[in-house]
Amino acid sequence: MHIPDGFLNPYVCILTYIISFIFLFWAWRKVKAAYPRAVVPLLAMSSAFVFAAQMLNFPIAYGTSGHLVGGTFLATLLGPHAAILSMTIVLLIQAIFFADGGISTFGANILNMAIIGALSFYVVKLLSGSSPSQKRFLASVFAASWFSIVLGALLCGLQIGVSPIFASAGGLLVTVPAMLFWHIIIGVGEAAITTSLISQLVRVRPMVLNGLAILGWDTR
Amino acid sequence: MRDLAKVLLAVIVGLAILLPFASAYPDGLETVAQNASVEGPEGLWHGLMPDYSLPAIENPYFSTLASGLAGIFLVLILVYLVGMAATQKKFKR
Predict the structure, then answer these.
(1) Cβ A48–B8 below 8 Å, yes or no?
(2) Cα–Cα distances in Å, from A178 out to A154, A163, B31, B32, B34?
(3) Could you give the ipTM of this predicted complex?
């Protein structure tokens, strides 16, 4: 879902840059206010894992593939604020060193993947309730990670749909349904991977999720 | 810290094992663009490791693996630095 340079019109680039900067500023402030330094190594390691996982495309159907984005994974592990920062850094490294996702479209990519992925934390929280059973917690992670991909794809479809280069192909009426179609399927992969990762972590290292207590949320 | 080194090793080994099985098919957005016969204009920036490969290494597997390792360490270092900058040493509730 990394939008390359040239796929968006300049207004969409500027608007998404502005929205993303507002969220980055908010995330930075929150991390400064609420996160202890002790979570930094875990944050760095889980971000490096997400980068590696994003290189592994899985085939879905009709000659199309998808890969983990990992926003919900990071947000469930470390809360939404740290997740926005770390996901943005993953996208930055991908754009600068690998030209995976453009520079002019960087704001849109932050919005569609880092911000939507990180905010899915609140979907997990909403669906889990205050003191969820493990089953309900994992079901919430599954639903939230699927939803984060579909919502990100919807935004991406809207962004490219208003771009002049997609106009002759039919614009929004084509891009939005097409992006949704593929990512409803890819989202299932995202949800399956995220849920199995989180459930393994809960089983092997329940301590890891205790980090979320810093955000006032007890997952047990 | 020791645990994290083990996780890092597991991530690298996992990537090395799974990389040959990664799908080369276009992803969702690339398929949508292809079906719309949209090709982005030649970008100005191609990255230092275009398409996740090191131009210096000929073997495609090792080329991609090496670029992946470089990316893993770049992310690790940058997130660590930003994380240190964003948190205080003495954290007061």
Answers:
(1) yes
(2) 9, 15, 9, 6, 11
(3) 0.90
> Does residue A59 belong to any structural domain of this protein?
no
Q: pTM for the full model?
A: 0.91
Task: Choose among A89, A74, A86: nearest CA to A141.
Answer: A74
Range of the domain at B28: 2-86
Read off the pLDDT of each residue in A155-163 and give the average, rounded to a whole number.
92
Among A94, A217, A195, CA closest to A147: A195
Number of cross-chain residue pairs from A and B with Cβ atoms under 8 Å apart: 198
Confidence of residue B39 (pLDDT cuts 50, 70, 90): confident
Collect all residues of chain B within an 8 Å Cβ-Cβ radius of residue A183.
28
Q: At what angle do helices B2-18 and A40-54 cross, to 10 degrees?
A: 0
A24: CATH: 1.10.1760.20
Task: Please count the structural domains in chain A.
Answer: 1
Cα(A125)–Cα(A40) distance, integer angstroms: 23
